[in-house]
Write a structure and sequence with these properties.
CATH superfamily of one domain: DD-peptidase/beta-lactamase superfamily
Structural class: alpha+beta
CATH topology of one domain: Beta-lactamase
Helix content: 25-40%
Number of helices: 23
Strand order of the largest sheet: 7-3-2-12-20-21
Shape: elongated
Radius of gyration: 33 Å
Strand content: 15-25%
Largest sheet: 6 strands, mixed
CATH class of one domain: Alpha Beta
Oligomer: single chain
């Protein structure tokens, strides 16, 4: 029995040894063969060239400047190879004197590791003209590698800065969201460059090569080209954009020129800044100067600037009134002041407008009409109607981080502040004041709605690759609203053409316009002040924002032109001439057909 047990144990041990030998000799061979293959066959991703952005006339507004980057062989920053490392740096600095040695060392050490066998970027960009005289000298050094590296360039500098946006070095957060960015090194940070970043950056190519134990290339096995140079065509006319920038010189605010179908021909946020300063990294001094400016040049005021709409909102509220129970012929006797509780709500005109119906109220911007109308309609219908007209929500424009603004309501105030609503807030809302906030882009969309009865989606892109981008405007008006819309349109026509229209005497447009001015207060006027100061008598930052939103031609609406001048005072006075010149330019360029 004992002998049998010993034999069984002996046989079992030998069987286990035989199985293990078989596994090591045969089965593991497949595994180690794969490892060996990975050691000899290397895959390299090829960075795609970023697509260009052009305007509607194919003029380049974001292109790639031809240049190169210089890379240094890894594993040189150690005791064994430090002499080689210093020799290479000495040579580079002697050849290109402007280099920062400390910065190069810091970048190299950050990327160098035992596991990294790829050459390390030490100089991010040298232009074509600067590297050509020294290219052959650098190329002879086996520890250095010269690699094509295009750099983003904006030919028009600060023109349309907030629309185009800029690319800059990617950070860890960028890489987490898009692994391709790690290969490229740059990404869109603002504007169109950010919104369409995935399309513009393209897709990486792939190159498979055979290397030896020293990581030296022996043979190229396959080569797949990157999907690159994706062109993005915008609706913008860059020359019109430049013309408008000259009109708005030394002013802060925003201008939008938009086809009534939503295609944006020009849009600017002022003041602007040179996009090229951000591509390679802005200096601390420049950043501090721009970021501390009271004019807020970094804010894209088109979609991130929030302002009280003031009287510019009155056409929309007028439509809400006459479709919510108020007779279109209802009128008030404006005596310049409306007592309500312990407060007095004043009309802007000291002598009052006297008998005023809706048409006159819009034409001459009578506050008293809208005060009293709001007390009949109520904030619920007012806010609901304005929200349906596109306010208090995103327009859908193809720019990143669009703000939604505020259309005040009981529900909004309860949720935001957990406080009750007061009747005085309804009255304030009726003239676009109080907590009411909009963006210029929302007001341009709103104006197109009044002009056509359809709510467009504002858009800059005209053609993305081979695909035409043309979102369809929405039909949101009821039959009753469409029936009564002509009354609002006629009143807006009179704003620009009637002898008592608030914009008439400030216009020189060759195009017949309809529009609405707005003077949005930025500081409250105390109740005990009987005589108000004129806008020009106030200090600059206490003056009201000036709105002037228009469409034209009146009988055949084709374009919306909106100008908002920060601290400009009266809308017509501050923006009338600017808007007139823009329409005349549109006529000259053939965009408007009379």
């Amino acid at each position: 029995m004992k002998i049998k047990f010993i034999v069984v144990v002996f046989v079992s041990i030998w069987m286990a040894l035989i199985v293990r030998v078989f596994f090591l000799a045969v089965e593991s061979n497949i595994h180690y063969k794969k490892l060996s293959h990975n050691n000899t066959i290397k895959s390299e991703e090829i960075a795609p060239v970023r697509g260009e952005i052009v305007d509607r006339n194919n003029k380049p507004i974001a292109i790639n400047e031809l240049g190169f980057k210089i890379q240094l062989k890894p594993h040189l920053y150690n005791k064994k190879n430090m002499k080689i490392f210093n020799e290479e740096l000495d040579f580079l600095i002697a050849t290109i004197p402007d280099l920062d040695r400390q910065k190069i060392v810091k970048n190299y050490k950050k990327k160098d590791s035992y596991y990294n066998h790829n050459f390390i970027d030490i100089i991010q960009f040298i232009s074509y003209k600067d590297i050509m005289p020294i290219y052959s000298i650098l190329n002879l050094r086996e520890n250095l590698k010269i690699v094509p590296a295009p750099k983003r360039y904006y030919p028009y500098g600060d023109i349309a800065a907030h629309i185009i946006g800029y690319v800059s070095r990617a950070n860890k957060k960028d890489v987490e969201h898009d692994k391709l960015i790690e290969l490229i090194g740059y990404t869109g940070k603002t504007g169109i460059e950010k919104y369409y970043n995935t399309y513009l950056e393209g897709e990486a190519g792939l190159r498979k090569i055979k290397v030896n134990a020293n990581n030296q290339e022996i043979e190229e096995l396959s080569h797949k080209k990157p999907n690159e140079d994706r062109k993005l065509i915008l609706n913008l006319d860059i020359e019109l954009q430049r013309y408008i920038s000259l009109l708005f010189e030394k002013k802060a605010g925003a201008v939008i020129v938009m086809n009534v179908d939503g295609a944006i021909l020009s849009a600017s946020s002022f003041p602007e800044y040179d996009l090229n300063t951000f591509v390679s990294g802005i200096s601390y001094e420049m950043w501090n100067k721009l970021s501390s400016s009271l004019e807020k040049p970094f804010t894209n005021k088109l979609v991130n600037g929030l302002y009280p709409p003031g009287s510019a909102i009155k056409p929309g509220l007028g439509l809400v009134y006459i479709t919510s129970g108020i007779d279109p012929h209802w009128h008030v006797d404006c005596r310049s002041a409306m007592p309500l509780g312990k407060r007095v709500f004043r009309c802007w005109k000291k002598t009052g407008h006297r008998i005023t119906d809706l048409r006159k109220a819009i034409r001459e911007s009578c506050d008293d009409y809208f005060y009293k109308g709001s007390l009949q309609v109520g904030i619920k219908k007012m806010s609901k109607g304005l929200m349906r007209y596109g306010l208090g929500k995103k327009t859908g424009v193809d720019l990143p981080n669009e703000f939604i603004g505020i259309v005040p309501s009981r529900e909004w105030k309860k949720k935001k502040y957990n406080r009750s609503w007061y009747i005085g807030e309804t009255v304030n809302t009726s003239i676009g004041q109080g907590d009411f906030l909009v963006t210029p882009m929302q007001m341009a969309q709103f104006t197109a709605l009044i002009a056509t009865g359809k709510l467009p989606i504002p858009h800059f892109a005209k053609k993305i690759g081979s695909k035409v981008y043309q979102p369809e405007p929405q039909k949101i008006f009821t039959k009753d609203e469409m029936k009564k819309l002509p009354l609002i349109q006629k009143a807006m026509y009179e704003v620009c053409n009637h002898p008592k229209g608030t914009a008439t005497h400030y216009l020189s447009s060759k195009v017949r316009l309809a529009g609405k001015t707005g003077t949005a207060q930025v500081v409250a006027i105390l109740q005990d002040i009987e005589k108000r100061k004129h806008e020009h008598e106030m200090s600059y930052y206490r003056r009201s924002h000036a709105w002037f939103t228009t469409y034209g031609p009146y009988k055949n609406p084709q374009y919306v032109v909106l100008a908002m001048v920060e601290h400009g005072g009266h809308g017509g006075a501050a923006a009338g001439e600017i808007v007139s010149k823009i329409y005349n330019k549109l006529l000259e360029l053939g965009y408007i057909k009379q």
